[in-house]
Structure formats: C-alpha cells, structure tokens
Amino acid sequence: MRNLLDTSKIVETHPDLHEQFYGLGAILAQIIFRKRMEKNMTQQELAQKAGVGVKTISRVEGGSGNIEIKTYEKLFQALGLSNTEIGHIIVEIEEKNKINHYV
Fold first, then answer.
1. So what's the pLDDT on residue 5?
2. Are 32 and 50 spatial neighbours (Cβ–Cβ below 8 Å)?
3. What is the pLDDT of residue 44?
4. In the chain, what are the domain boundaries?
C-alpha cells in the first residue's frame, strides 16, 4: 500500500516544491542547532535534558521530516527558548534566506 504522506517522490519530480515540503523543518533545525552551540551543549546533553534520544537530536538537526511537534517543544524548552524568541529567530532566518536568494 502506498504511503500518501510520503512527499519525497513529489519533490523528486518537482524540485521547486522542496521548500514548501521541507522549509519549516530546516528552519527549526537551524534554531535548535544554533542554540545548542550557543549553550556549548553536546547532542547527548540536550537529549538528556529534553528526555529524547541522541538519534532524535541528530534527526532534528539534520532537518529530517516526521518529527512530532511535542519533540520540538521538548527541545525548545530544554534550550530555554520562548515562543517569542523562536518567532524572532524564524523571521531573522527568513530575512537572511531572502537576502541570500537575491545575492
């Protein structure tokens, strides 16, 4: 039976849709990686603090799909990120992406 949630084949045939399918995961990955680095935390330390596995941290930071919202919430909480701060960082990343797109 075909998995209707698997978008990889769509993206293969329509690469212009890549950002729509994978954009948010990539942005959240950047936020988590950046904050983990700022706090000088290892993936192991973040995993322990958030109550998730190290493989989960690796998948999240790699921009992997199929990450539950609850997992992101645990990671943001473990990193001490408020919703407001997350919003500001998303806007900052989007602005950089727009600038880089035109350079």
1. 42
2. no
3. 98
4. 17-102
Q: What is the structure's pLDDT at 73?
A: 97
> What CATH number is given for 17-102 in this structure?
1.10.260.40
pTM greater than the 0.90 cutoff:
no
CB 43 within 8 A of CB 74: no
* Token couple for 50: 């958030």
Band of residue 14 on the pLDDT scale cut at 50, 70, 90: confident
Return the number of other C-beta atoms located less than 10 Å from residue 91's C-beta. 10
Measured between alpha carbons, how far is residue 52 from residues 25, 44, 46, 103 in Å? 18, 9, 8, 39
Which SS3 state, helix, strand or coil, does residue 81 take? coil
Of the candidates 16, 87, 78, 80, the residue with the CA atom closest to the CA atom of residue 50: 78
Give 2-49 as a DSSP string: --TT--HHHHHH-GGGHHHHHHHHHHHHHHHHHHHHHTT--HHHHHHH
